[in-house]
Amino acid sequence: MTVREISETEHLAFVRAQRSTSFLQTPAWGKVKSEWRRQSIGWFEDGGTEPVGAALVLYRQLPKVRRYLAYLPEGPVVDWTDEDLGAWLRPLAAHVKGHGAFGVRIGPPVVTRRWDAATIKEGIAADGVRRLGELAPTERDGTGARVVTQLRELGWRSQAVAGGFAAGQPQHVFQVPLAGRSEDDVLAGMNQQWRRNIKKAAKAGVEVTSTSSAEGILEQLRAFHDLYVHTAERDRFTPRPLSYFRTMVEALAAEEPDRITLHLARHEGDLVAATIAIRVGAHAWYSYGASSTEKRDVRGSNAVQWAMMRAAIAAGADVYDLRGITETLDPDDPHVGLIQFKVGTGGEAVELVGEWDLPLVKPLYKAFELYMKRRG
């Protein structure tokens, strides 16, 4: 197996041939992360001309030296069921080291455990249960366990952060399975409160409009961003600037006509909720959301989530992904509200393998670790 740089056209063709690939592993995402140097790479078997694996590599420069951390968010897209992962990862390490990397970070898109909504609900209500990992999972994935073992044996280091969100991509996400399910099936799987809120929004006259064209999204992006900033002030997080969303819309919409969609929920002309959804093949994500503090009783957030789920079902998606959650099930932890909201969809908590680092130049990698600790 060899690894070499490929064109963005070759990379996109490989992504299109997959049932599911993270949007963070599309060529367009490299354009969104303009502060990183981007590169599309492919894996080739001996004598082969078509890639059997692909990845977006983002190179982040270490301060004051021309060396880089090579980052493959939620990638690479390779055969993670292979019992010899070294055959894939060794040429990756050699390639990025040849392009100035002192270390490489990957995020295998591989599941280790799942917990269904009923199990999580019981865990939140139970005395003495404080974390998701303390609950017996509904399902364990043998491939995920094997990947973790192989990565350790190959010298990779887990970057998992206990309890909260990691600095990179989340290890725990919440997903609603859609494969083989109709709208009625998904609606029936929700808890009573979610179904009631969706009906309440419809009865109150909440209307959700959606647009996937770059022009249409950009025309209404200011309205989304104003509501998003309002949400950030209320919920105390740091919002991204409007320019970031413009770049994201322009890059993703140019790659595929239905890659990114803006959903706006209005009540009597007032914007009460807004979301950005992304889809690659059969995987649909809820990426960003915003909601008004006023008129919360009309349940715009439930209405817009349901609109996104219906769009994902109509597009033939296998999964609707509500992205990151923390491990906490502690009723006194402010983060528990996030998982409680998502549990109402009737989906499942999913634990991934997480992000892993391989130091390539150990003194520089150690300096990078110290730099990151000082930053926060």
From TrEMBL:
Domain of life, source organism: Bacteria
InterPro entries membership: Acyl_CoA_acyltransferase, FEMABX, PG_Glycine_Bridge_Synth
A Pfam family this chain is assigned to: FemAB
Coiled coil: none
Listed PANTHER family: LIPID II:GLYCINE GLYCYLTRANSFERASE
UniProt family annotation: Belongs to the FemABX family.
Record's protein name: Peptidoglycan bridge formation glycyltransferase FemA/FemB family protein
Organism expressing this protein natively: Nocardioides abyssi
